[in-house]
Each structure stands twice: as structure tokens, then as C-alpha cells.
Amino acid sequence: MKNNKEIRTRFAPSPTGYMHLGNLRTALYAYLLAKVNDGKFILRIEDTDQERYIKGATDIIYNTLKETALIWDEGPDVGGRYGPYIQSQRMPIYKKYADELIKSGHAYYCFCDKDRLEKVKRIQKMSGVSAKYDMFCRNLTEEEVQRKVDAGETYVVRQKISIDGATVFEDVVFGRIEVENKTLDDQVLIKADGMPTYNFANVIDDHTMNITHVIRGTEYLSSTPKYNLLYQAFGWELPVYIHCSPVMKNMTQKLSKRHGDASYQDLIQKGYLSEAIINYIVLLGWSPKSDREIFSLKELEKEFNVEGLSKSPAIFDIQKLNYINGEYLRNLDISEFYKISLPWIKKEVKRSDIDFLLLAKVLQVRAEFLDQIPEQIDFIDKLSDYSTDLYVSKKMKTDKRSSLDILKIILPKLQETQDYSVENLHDILVGLAKNMEVKNGYILWPIRTAISGKQFTPGGAIELCAILGKQEVIQRIQKGIILLEQVLND
């Protein structure tokens, strides 16, 4: 999508709380489209809906974009040629353009109160007619309007949409779309409190900020003809539209915080990496030209193309996210993984006499996200009661009798040695398997079961022995012997 005109995209969130994954994906696509074309990515805060405004939500927007490295070229905090970049600070601009539309006959004052509008809506519903404004004030004379204004009557400003013809536009993803004008509503442009509506403000802002490409969700497809009629009323050039299909929980439900679906902040709190989240959500509705799935942001700044965007809704797959996040965790330098995993390790492990670095090494291979860590190591401080059925493994060809025999053979060897390093324990245990002419698992499975009481552990018997230390290992193997003898003697 290279051309001579500088490509300018924008992310224009409302400060209404957490960062929805769909919102973050919109920001990512807008950012990447700008970067892949050497353009500009603009951040604009759309805060005209004061009823939904949540204190601190603007900081959530800033922090999320910074954490994910989606750094804007222009915005409220960095400035730019086309500011202010906060809608509530642009009120004179909206009034100016609203007045222009009224003068040109493309907008009008509406004095209908809430009760009348509700009554009209009820009648339309009972009649099976689509709810829309009935144009009651559309043809008021200038004298009638002035008399009502002078009398202090409350009013809004509505867009005057022609009831004839159709509005046609091209969307990069969905192609040619045509809507009959008679189906469109005379939408409110300026509310009774003087604030612009979202639909009006974003058109004015996009034009005055020289936005060339508008990326947003398909929920705005139905409003786009009304936006285009505003552009035409002013004689402005239309932007390129790129509407993205929604991110879905399943084939029928959108992701929703109200229904317990995760936001970006929720995923971070569960120990997902921001880089992995970005990598995953770029694939929610976009397909690269190759089968590759793991991309850094810098790589995406070169690889992204709008041709890869899909019309089909994207299904949020937590297993796919886990896979990608696990890949990122495993690719970290061990010192970095140790640093970020230690707080999660210490949520569960209160002992101070273990090798935390070695524990981090075995966890790095297994963990898909950091919140999994406490559950995986809940045996470190205390061995819980477990069933001796865990000693039975078809794969390792062990049963309770063979496991008891192995534990009795290995116990004195582990009591004798003072060196509980991985290297020395490997020599002892693997050496025993070699001397007995059995596979390593035949020896290691009973030991791992005895010291962990779990079927699945991060790391094998050798690493776990080194982590737990001699005293704890001896006590747990002795307990395993006692449990197996009790079961076998019953």
C-alpha cells in the first residue's frame, strides 16, 4: 500500500476502563499499517461520552500501548501539528463545523424531548418499523428555530440525510458496500449538553488530523454511509476504510468482560508476556504469507499487509495463546526468565534452602504462562498425601512391587553421597539403570513419584532431587517405602 501520500492511521479509544483485546488488535493493525508504509500512527482520546468516562482509564490506554511498544507519533502527551488530541479539548472545532452544516442545509436543530422520542420509538416498534427519528423538526423555518432557541428550549443538532438515492463506498476487506439513504437515520451530531457525538467527532477529527486510513471494527460498517455523507457535505476526500471482523469467544458470542473474558490487563496479571499477546492477537483475523506464527513486533512492522485480513470472525483460542506464550518464555535468556518467574515461584515456595535458579530452569521448559507455576511446584515445601497407584506406569514398565524394590536399592546410595548436584545425581541414578540393564525411566519414575507425589512435574527425578536437597529427598523416599510396604502387605 505504498503511495506518494504519507499514510496516517489513528487509534481513538474511549477512556471507559480496561483494554479489550479487540481494541488492542485495532491499535496494533493501525500501528503496523503506518509503520510498514513509513507513515504516522496517531493516538486520540475520544472522551465526549462523559457518562461512560472512568477515572484513570486514560492512563490504562497510555500504559497498555507503551507496554506493548505501540508507540504513537502524535498524541495528547507528545503533541503534533493537529492537536489537541483529546476530544473534550476540541469543542470549538466541532461547533464550527456543525454551524457550517446547518448553514449549508446538511444539518438542523431538533427540539424533540426524550418523552416524544420514546413515544415515537414505541409506535414504530408496534408497527414493525425500524426505529429511527421521524424527522419532526427537519423542516422548521429559520424563524421557528430562532423563536425556540430564544425561548431557551433544549435542542440537539441532527444530520439531514437525503431520502433519495444510495451511498456507496469501498472497504479494503469487504469490498463494495451500497446502502439506500432512506434506511439511514438523521443521527445526532451535537448533543443537548453541547458535546459532539462519537459519529460526528471522529469524522471531524479524522479529516482535520489528515487521517488517510481508518481501521476499526465491523460494528461501524453500518454507520460508514452517514460518515461519508458528512465528508461529501464538506467536500472532503474520503479516507481508506479497513473494517476488521470481531474477535469472538465462539461462533455466536463476542468476547466480553461482563461475561468473564480476559482483557489485556487480565492476561498480564496471569503471567502472559506483552510481546506474546501482541504476537497472538495479530493472528486474530490476519494471515501472514507464510505458515510462520512467531513474529517480533519489529518483524511485523515489515511483514504486515492488509491483504491478509479476513472477513471471517476470529475465534479467541486460549490454547493457541498458551502455545505462543510458552514459546516466548522458552526463548528467554535464563537470567531473564529467572527474574520474571521468581515472584511466582515465591508465591508457593517459602523455603529458602533450595536452588531457585535450577527450579527456574526446569520450569522454563514446562510453563506456558507464569500463573501456572505455583500449582506446578506445590510439592516443594510439603509433600501431600498421594495414591500409590502413581507408581504404576505402563510406559516405564513399573508397578508397586518394582517401585518398592528400586526405592530400597537407591535409598542407601542417596544417603551415602553428599553431592546433590545434577551431574553427580545423574551419574548415580543413570549408572544404576545401566548396571541393572534397565531403562532409565524404570529407576527414575519411582523416585520422582516418591519425592513429588505427582504424575506430572516440571523437571525429572534428577533435577527434583537436586532442588529439594538431601534431607528432604531421603525423608520422602523413606515415606514412599513405608506407603508401598503397607499397600503390598495388606
Task: Give short descriptive properties of this protein.
490 residues, mainly alpha, elongated, 3-stranded antiparallel beta sheet
Report on this structure:
By secondary structure, the protein is mainly alpha-helical. It is built from 19 helices and 11 strands. The strands form 5 sheets. Strands 3-4-7 form a 3-stranded antiparallel sheet. The protein has a two-stranded parallel sheet with strand order 1-2. Helix 7 (224-234) links the parallel strand 8 (213-217) and strand 9 (240-244). Helix 13 (356-366) runs antiparallel to helix 18 and helix 16 (422-436) packs across helix 18. The radius of gyration is 32 Å and the shape is elongated.
Oligomer: single chain
Overall geometric form: elongated
Task: Supply the number of helical segments.
Answer: 19
Q: For the report, how would you describe the main beta sheet?
A: 3 strands, antiparallel
Strand content: 5-15%
> Can you tell me the residue ranges where pLDDT is under 50 for at least 5 consecutive residues?
none
Distance between the termini: 77 Å
Mean pLDDT: 94
Q: Bin the helical content.
A: 40-55%
Strand order of the largest sheet: 3-4-7
